[in-house]
Amino acid sequence: MDLSKLNTAQRASVTAGDGAHRVIAGAGTGKTRTLVHRVAWLIEQGVPPESVVLLTFTRRAAREMLQRASRQVGARAHGVRGGTFHGFAHRTLRRHAEQVGRTPQFTVLDQSDAEELVGMARTALGLGGRGRRRFPRSKALLNMFGRATNLGMSLDEAVVSFNPRFERDIADIVRVRTAYETRKASQDALDFDDLLIYLGRLLAKHPPARKEISGRCRHVLVDEYQDVNRLQARIACLLSVVHGNLMVVGDEAQSIYAFRGASVDHILDFATLFPTAPTTVLTHNYRSTTPVLELANGVLDSMHSSIDKELVSCVGDGPMPRLIKVEDDERQADHVVCRVLALREEGVGLDEQAVLARSGHQLVSLELALARANIPYRKYGGLRITEAAHVKDVLALLRAAINPADVLAWMRILPFCENVGRTTAQRIAEARAKGDRSPLSAMTRRKAPELDQLETLLSELSTLIKDAQQAFLAAVEGIRPWLDRRYDDAADRALELESLLSLVDRYSDVPALISELALDPPQRAEAVQTEDDELLTLSTVHSAKGLEWRAVYVLGLADGAFPSGFSIDDPEAMEEERRLLYVAVTRAKRHLDMMQPRFVSRRSGPVFAPSCSLLDDIPGLWDRVVSGAGASAEDDEEADEGIAADVEDRLARFADYFGD
DNA sequence: TGAGTTGTTCTTTTT
DNA sequence: GAACAACTCA
Question: What is the SS3 string spanning A233-302?
């Protein structure tokens, strides 16, 4: 194996001996490369690949790393167990299901399943109703439960510290959670948080299970350690408790998941847990030019926390980052489209360019503009295919076929049939969950002949569970007549379902399909086949973590957009916004355009955004960026027209309001 | 009891 | 723009 291309610090991490080890790796300093070589080196030293566990933030990251490691040491690298904490927990719990009160066939609830189940528990307890004072919605409730578990605090504490306005409702909130737990147990399901909780509990409280599970983890490597929460940090430690080999890699300046309980404390306090553990710091940046890093360092300087490291470029000089003021979303989109095409002319391919935004919906106007300009793109952090209603329908069919206790699935598919509504669906679902196998059509009061069709379809599906592709095909065929009635764009949806078939063949059987899709739902864009191999990337900043492009555009640098309106009054949240900006700008290798609109779009319409506090707080901003030419003269004319249109618009509203 | 309509509220980032 | 509750009518 060739270690000569690594620098001293990287090599030290790669060839570190046994024990605990921490690597602090600034953006672009070859963190992934180091991990990849570490894995390869371990294998070359004779460590059995299946005793190495590589925990990453996304499954994509794990796949990529193992691919690269296999270039070093061959196919053996694929024997390494890798994936997300949730994926690892899922696989482990399948083997220990009985110990956590489930069967090995348990279902994994994704976010929306969990929300629905909380909603059912909530209404069943009579906590809906609007006559009474406001009670949190199911989404908010699930959020509270998640906060509590991921931070390792009680639900009471979590409500008091994060949702004090619901303090008076704590008793009821606790009741909902108890009911939710009961429902999950009775339908043999675990939600995302449960996967971590139960694995944590198993490791902490069942010594034989711990011995078995951790015994198989000779080396544990954790990527993006700055984004683990308390529960995940605990799991990482417990997994390595038998052999004592734990390597964590991260960058405290890139911690961007506080909203789900992540805390930099875990990487910062590593030395408290492992006093003798060495720390390696990677500081040489191989990704970006000096001007890009000057700006990144400026963002670091604007942070209040004491992150004390400057990135030094090993790439050299390049063009200055540009700050471009535009009028609004549309002008912003137009500018990006022009610039993307211009750079492409200069030889920067579409696949070397990316547009990043704070939230997914900020990309919408750009998508329209790209479509008009015929620029092919791929969007990350947008809709997942499993969020599409018709996909959920098909999956619900399959779920009901493999697990009759899956009340959520029944509640989704039963009302397809004419004369079956919520009430009937609920009655049937609960009866089935209790083991009642009488024919569906015998369980209603009204006549619902379509229930017989449904029953036939389900029994057909249950004979196909060993073959994910066949079963999916049959489910799509079976659901087609109902699609027409449910959706006015049924034809498009049917087409999309057919195109998903190619995606399904990577899963072995139906249970695998269901749980893998819940844990790692493909982006909707990924599912659609395109002939273009050169695609522009659109992404949220969160989903761009760990990636890099030659040219990067950061959208919506204005208070209310980036930073998010939710963060502006909260110093802690603003600190996270700064880290997000840091992540965004450090994705760029060479070209960086930051867009600052004067108006940001809200539901209620455009809102004037006088400034961007994130930029204002960067010391010496104007030494670090140049003011970009917003647009050509002819574009300015259009901008004037845009403003004139605004004035007209306002005048019309005034006239409306004052009753001219 | 199902089906369809209207009004209110909240609106981010992901496994 | 979606989720949810409350309403109406058959």
Answer: HHHHHHHCCCCCCEEEEECHHHCCCHHHCECCHHHHCHHHHCCCCCEEEECEECCCCHHHHHHHHHHHHH
